[in-house]
TrEMBL record:
Biased composition (Acidic residues): 1-14
UniProt domain CEP76/DRC7 peptidase-like: residue ranges: 273-346
Protein location: Cytoplasm, Cytoskeleton, Flagellum axoneme
Any one Gene Ontology cellular component term annotated for this protein: motile cilium
Species of origin: Neopipo cinnamomea
Protein name (database record): Dynein regulatory complex subunit 7
UniProt keyword annotations, A-Z: Cell projection, Cilium, Coiled coil, Cytoplasm, Cytoskeleton, Differentiation, Flagellum, Spermatogenesis
Protein family (similarity comment): Belongs to the DRC7 family.
Keyword Coiled coil: yes
Major subcellular site: cytoplasm
Disordered: region residues: 1-41
Dynein regulatory complex subunit 7 MORN domain: residues covered: 395-678
Amino acid sequence: MEALEENEEVEQTAEDLNSLDISDSLQDAETKVPEEADSVSNDVPGFDWSSIDTSHLPSSYKTNSHQEKKLLHIADHFLQQYTHVCPDRKPLFLHPVNECGVEKFVSTTLRPTLLPYPELYHWSGCASFVSNYLTMEPLKCPITLPSSLYSPTTILKYQRGNCFDFTVLLCSLLIGAGYDAYCVHGYASQEICALDQTQDLCPLLRKPQEVPMTKKSRKYRVKILAEPQSKFELQQKAKKEEAEDVEKKEEEEEVVTEVQEKPKRDPLHGLRVHAWVLVLSGKRKVPETFFINPFTGNSHNTMDDCFLGIESVWNHRNYWVNMQDCRKGCRDLSFDLSDAIRWEIMLPESNKLLTESSERDMDDTKENEESFEMPLSWVARMNVSCREFENQYSQGKKVIMYKQAKLEKWAPYVNGDGLVERLTVYGDLDCTEVVEVTEWFKNREDMLDMRKMNKQTQLTTDYFKPGHPLLLKAHTYTSLEAETGHSMEFYHKARADDLQKRVESATEMTEYFVGRDDFLHIRHVEFGEREDGMDVAGTRPDVHLRPIVQIKECFHRNPGKPADEDIEERIFMIEDDSIRLTYHLEDHDTIASKVAFLRAIQRDRKEEEIFLTRDTCVKYQPWSSEKHKNVLHLYKLLWELRKEQKELKHQVRESEAEVLNVLKVREDEETNIKLTVSMYNAAKRE
C-alpha cells in the first residue's frame, strides 16, 4: 500500500510538472483571455468576494455534519481510485470550499427550489431569469477549476458569479421545477466561455424554418417535352456564367478581407474550463436531451461544436465521471448514466471498486458506501421577492452585442415610457450604420406594444395590443402631422363598420373592410386641390376640406343575388356627375355587364330632376333579363345611387375627421405617457 502511495505521489508530481510546463508555454495566452473576458462586463465595477459578510449565515455554512464528513471521506477515496486508473486526466471538481472556507461536496451545494412564479415552471423561464439576474464573472484562470463554489443564496444576494455559480443556481431551479437536470463540468469554446456573441445572429432576427410541402406524385401524368436548344449555345452560356462567377467571388473576397479579419486560432482551444446544464429527456415530457448555456439561457443540441468535452456531471443525489472519448467533442457521447462502462458513478447501488488491489484494503469503506445516501443540501432556502424578480437586471440594464445587431434590455418601470427592450440592426460589421430599430414596451396605458423604425425609409410603425380606445392595431407614419402619409390598422371585429385598414395620403384614401353584410371590401377616394374657406367642422381651424373627385367601391360576390344584379364595382365621379356600375360574372360568362349614368341630373331652381336618355344612360348587359331593360328600373336604381352618393360623401368626411382625431390622440399619448400598474403589484402601487 505504501509503495502504491509512493507511485501515486510520483505520478502526481509528474502530472503537476506537465501542467506547469503547459501553463508556462501558454502563459501569454492565459493573460490575454481574462482581459478579453473582463471586457465583456467592463461596465460593471470590480467586486471583492473576500469582503462579503458571512457572520449572519447559518451554522450549516460554517461546519460539516457527520454525514457530510463521511461523504467527503468517500469522495477522497473515489478521487484516489480515479487518479490511479486515469492518471492523465484533469482533477475532478468534487469538494471546493464555500464562502465560509469550508469544504462542501458539489452535490450538496444544489438546493432544488420551485419559486412561486409561473415563468419559472418552464426551463426557458428559469434559464432566462438566471442569465438576466446574474452578472457574468470569468474564471481567474481559464484552464483550471475554481477553488471555491459559493451557495446559491449568496450568488442571488450579490447577483454575480462564474459559470459554476450560474450552473448550480439554474440546475437547482430546474430540479425544483421537475426536470431531470445535471450540472456539467467540461470544456467549451472561447466564445461560450467568454460570453462573446458578436459572431452569432440575434435570436430575434432568425427566421422560422419553413416546413417543405410534400407534393403528391401522380402515377399518370403527361410529360412535357422541353424546347430544343443548341448544345453549342448552352456551352458558351455556361462558360460566360462561370467567368462572371469567378469575377464576383474575387471581388467579394477582396471586400471581405478588407472589412473583416480572419478569426484568430485560439491557443487554449479544448482546454478552457466551463460549466453548463444537462437536461435529460423523459421528465416533464422533454423529448430530447439538450444543453443549456447558463450565461445566455439558450438551449443547444448535445452535438453542438461549441461544447468540446465533459469531465463529470452531478445532481443533488449523485456524481458521475465521464469515461467516454471526447476527441470529437460531445457528438458521440451517450448520456445513459446507468451505463457503468461509459459513466463511473460515485455512490452506486452496488458499489464495485475500480481495482482489485484496493478492494482488499477498503472493506470498511465499501460497506459504508453501499448503505450511504447523499446528505441533504446545506444551503438555506432560496427566496426571490416580487421586486427582485421584476427588476432582474443588476445594473437596471443589459446590453448584448450580436453580429451586426445590439440588444438592450431594461426591467419594467425603469424607463418612463415603458421601454423594456430595444434591438438595433446595423448595416456594417463595425456597427456604425443603423438600418432599423425595434422597441418593445410594457405597461403602457395606450396599449403600445412594439415600435419599428426604419432609418432608411424614415417610416415608423407602432403596434398596439387590444384595448386601445380607438381600437388601433398598427399605425405606420413618417410624422404625426396630417396628410403626410398614414396607414392605420384596426381591430375590425370590435368596430361597427368592420374597418380593417385605412391608408391615407394628401391626394387619396383607401379603406379595407372585412366581413361586412353588404360584401363591401374596398373603398377608394381621390381628392382634388383645396379651395379657400372650406373648413372641417369640429376640427382644428387650420385644416381645410379637400374636394372629393371620385369614390370607388368594390364588393365581393353575394351568392343570394343573380350575377347581373350583384354589383362588383361602382364608381362615383363627383366632378363629372356620373356613376359607373360593373356587375359580377357568372361561372360561364366572360364579359361583365356594365351601366353608366352620364350627367343624368339637371338642376333647376327648385330641385334636382332626372332625365334618362340614350346619351345620359349607357348600358351593356348582354346576359340581363327583361327587368333590367325596363327604363323605370333604371330610374329607381339611379335615385338610390344618388342617395348613397350623398351618404358616401358624408362617410368620407367622417373618415377624414377620424384620421385627424387619431393623430391628435396619438400626439397627446406620446407627450403625456402614462404607465399602468397591476392591482396585485402592491409595491409598485405604493
